[in-house]
Amino acid sequence: MEEPMPVPETYVVVGASLAGAKAAQTLREEGFTGRVVLIGEETRRPYERPPLTKGFLAGKDPFDKAYVHEESWYADNDVELRLGVRVSGLDRAAHEVRLADGERVGYTKLLLTTGASARRPAVPGADLEHVHYVRDAPDSERLRAALEPGDRRVAVVGAGWIGLEAAAAARAYGNEVRVIAPSTPLRRSLGTELGEVFAALHRRHGVEFVTGDVAKITESSVLTTGGAETPADVVIVGVGAVPNSALAEEAGLEVDDGIVVDASLRTSDPDVYAAGDVAKADHPLLGRRIRVEHWANALNGGPAAARAMLGRPVVYDRVPYFYTDQYELGMEASGAWVGGYDQVVYRGTDPAAYVSGDTDELEFIAFWLSGGRVVGGMNVNVWDVAGDIQALIRSGRPVDAARLADPGVPLADLV
């Protein structure tokens, strides 16, 4: 009797995102010869998301620059790219994913890179036609078309990274911009003093700030709970994101503000992994679970999960990193210091002097310390230092604050 042909191993990636595409790339680079299936609900091949509120939205870059791979790469590397396909469920016992059209795709190992969705405020008018949320390419294209005339009254709800980047893009087109938020911009991320640096930057470029919580959005304005009314032809909402973890939760995987994974990005099911915005991972360096929604986590997390799926030893403990570009300010930040620091040390220009208008210079590094140890750092218009800042964080050793503040002392000497 003729022996049956062996069934090839199949690795399925749900989420045709940056993390998913880089995972597929890594599987092939690491020598995996089985079947690789990359499934995405969007109709475009995988792309990077920072341009959606940065270069593309501001009209500086064509969208083609955002794609992770050339269109031919997937066929050339025998990656089955299935776009415009919604996964409706996971059957862990059968090792299958169920598609919305009824088809089932079997897997040996499964990776979830489903990302996150824009949070929508529970207020009247949040779904009106002129209200914009930026999470995918069509969102960004629609918003760019609304901003390009340059004669619009734009209200930005939320003063986080997305909101401020969108505000900068709106001003670049010449629109009138007001940002509505309950407190200092970026206060939760940076603290009040450094949040005021970004507020001052935007004010210098003509942005106004309205303090308050949004109560209602109408066809022509945004109203706060305090009664302030901001006229608006275009409303941009940037009030955070929600992890797309419903598939995992319905399948009985552990979920807690994201899909819970260990330091190798493995879920509570040994054959299922998660990476990128949706994953809440044990972080050995930080000693806690964190979920990181920034580009670098998707870029590095996808490959790390792919190696773990292949049985390689993986400890995913990269220092969290993100960046922003707003007007003349370029910034990189490393670490995870929110709520866990007791001192801020500055090297370079005094940020308070910039806020007060005593200087136009905007070049400094801010270090967040806890117990004398650097837990975070942000370099503003100072380049080629992110690696040294991350080395300081990773070392976990106490530093001398005076030397840390001294631009004459190389950061590498403090590690």
From TrEMBL:
Domain Reductase C-terminal: 321-414
Cofactor dependence: FAD
Domain FAD/NAD(P)-binding intervals: 11-301
Keywords: FAD, Flavoprotein, Oxidoreductase
Matches recorded under InterPro entries: FAD-oxidoreductase/Apoptosis, FAD/NAD-bd_sf, FAD/NAD-binding_dom, FAD/NAD-linked_Rdtase_dimer_sf, Reductase_C
Top-rank taxon, per record: Bacteria
Short name of any one Pfam family annotated for the protein: Pyr_redox_2
PANTHER family: APOPTOSIS-INDUCING FACTOR 1, RIESKE DOMAIN-CONTAINING PROTEIN-RELATED
Full protein name: FAD-dependent oxidoreductase
Organism: Actinoallomurus liliacearum
